[in-house]
Amino acid sequence: MFQALAARTRRDILRRTIDHEQSVSELARDYDMSFAAVQKHVAVLEAAELIVKRAEGRERLVRANPDMIAHARALLARYEELWRSRIARLDDLLAEDAAGARDDRGPDPSGSADRPNQGD
Amino acid sequence: MFQALAARTRRDILRRTIDHEQSVSELARDYDMSFAAVQKHVAVLEAAELIVKRAEGRERLVRANPDMIAHARALLARYEELWRSRIARLDDLLAEDAAGARDDRGPDPSGSADRPNQGD
DNA sequence: GTAATCTACAACCAAATGGTTGTACGAAAT
DNA sequence: ATTTCGTACAACCATTTGGTTGTAGATTAC
Q1: Strand D contacts (CB < 7 A) among A residues 8-67?
Q2: Size of interface A-B (CB pairs under 8 A)
Q3: Between the CA of residue A5 and those of A48, A93, B90, B97, what are the distances in Å?
Q4: Which of A44, B2, B40, B64 could form a disulfide with B17 if both were Cys (CB 3.0 to 4.6 A apart)?
C-alpha cells in the first residue's frame, strides 16, 4: 500500500478521484504520458485497494476508497502512538530520576521540530 | 518519503528506532541480510528525514524523527479532508437545489441526500 | 603497536518499476 | 457494417531498487 502511494502520479490520481469518479481516459488526458502508463498506475492503485473501478458502458470509472486511505493514516498514527508512549515512559523515568541528578542532556521532544520540508 | 516507507524492513527500522536509538550494527544484527544492506536502508530513511543519525565514537546512533512521521500522516489526512469536503459540497448542492427549485423556506436534510454517487 | 569493530562506499547483479509501442476486443457512434 | 473510442494486455526498454561482496577509514580493545 505504501508502495502504491510512493509515486507522485498515483497520489495525484488518488486525489483527483476523491473529488469525483473519472474514467481512465479522462485521467490519462491530463498527464504527459501514454494512456497505457496511466492505466498501469490505476491498476497498482486498484491492487492496493486504494481505488475501486466500476464499469459503465465501455468506460471504467475510478473512484478513491477512503477506507483504505484512513487505514494508511492509522498505520502511521500507530507510529506516533509508539512515540508518545515512549515520551510517557521517559517522563516517568525523569520524574523518578529528578529526585537525584538533574541532567539537561536528553531527548528534547518539544524542540525537535526540524524543518519538515522536502522529501515527499 | 512514501517511497522510503514503502519497504517493510525500513518501516521496521523506523518502528524500532522510535523506541530508542540504536546503532546501525545493532539494527543489522536482527535482519537476515548483510550489514551493508541495512546500512543502505538507513541511508534511505535518513535522506527522507524519517530518521536522524548521531555520531558517538565509532558508532552511528539512529533515532526516528517523529515530525516527519506526523508529516506523512498529515498528508494522508488531507486526502481524508478532501473526501469530507466533497461530501459537504454535495450536501450544499442538494440544499441549494432544493431551495432553488422551490420557493420553500429552509433546506431539506432529512432523507433527500441519499445518492452521493452520480449514476451508481 | 596490532587486532577487532563500526561504518562508509564502490562495484556488481537480479528483480521490480515506470515508461513505451503494438495488438486485440467490446461498446458506441457513424 | 465500419469506424472510432475506451480499455486491457503483451513485449520491450531504461532506470531504480534491494541485495551482495569487497575495500578502506576511524575508533576502540588488547
Answers
A1: 23-26, 28, 35-36, 39, 42-43, 53, 58-61
A2: 93
A3: 9, 38, 27, 37
A4: B64
Q: B42: distance to nearest CA of chain A, Å?
A: 15
Tell me how far apart the alpha carbons of residues B68 and B49 are, in angstroms, rounded to a whole number.
7
Tell me how far apart the alpha carbons of residues A15 and A69 are, in angstroms, rounded to a whole number: 11
- Going from the C-alpha of B62 to that of each of A117, B8, B24, B49, the distances in angstroms are 20, 17, 7, 11
Q: Is the pLDDT of residue A80 over 70?
A: no
CB A16 within 8 A of CB A27: yes
Cross-chain residue pair A15–B65, CB shorter than 8 Å: no
The per-residue pLDDT for range A29-61, each reduced to its tens digit, is: 999 999 999 999 999 999 999 999 999 999 999
Average pLDDT over residues B7-24: 92
| Pair A61, A50: CB distance under 8 Å | no
Per the rule left: phi > 0, alpha: psi between -120 and 50, beta: everything else, A20 is beta
| pLDDT tens string B27-47 | 999 999 999 999 999 999 999
Q: Note the CA–C1' distance, A37 to D14, in angstroms.
A: 15
End-to-end CA distance of chain A: 16
Give B6: exposed, middle or buried? Use CB within 10 Å, 0-12, 13-18, 19+. middle
Q: Write the CA distances from A25 to A5, A22, A41, B14, B82, integer angstroms.
A: 21, 8, 12, 38, 22
What is the Cα–Cα distance from B22 to B31, expressed in whole angstroms?
Answer: 14
B36 three-class SS: helix
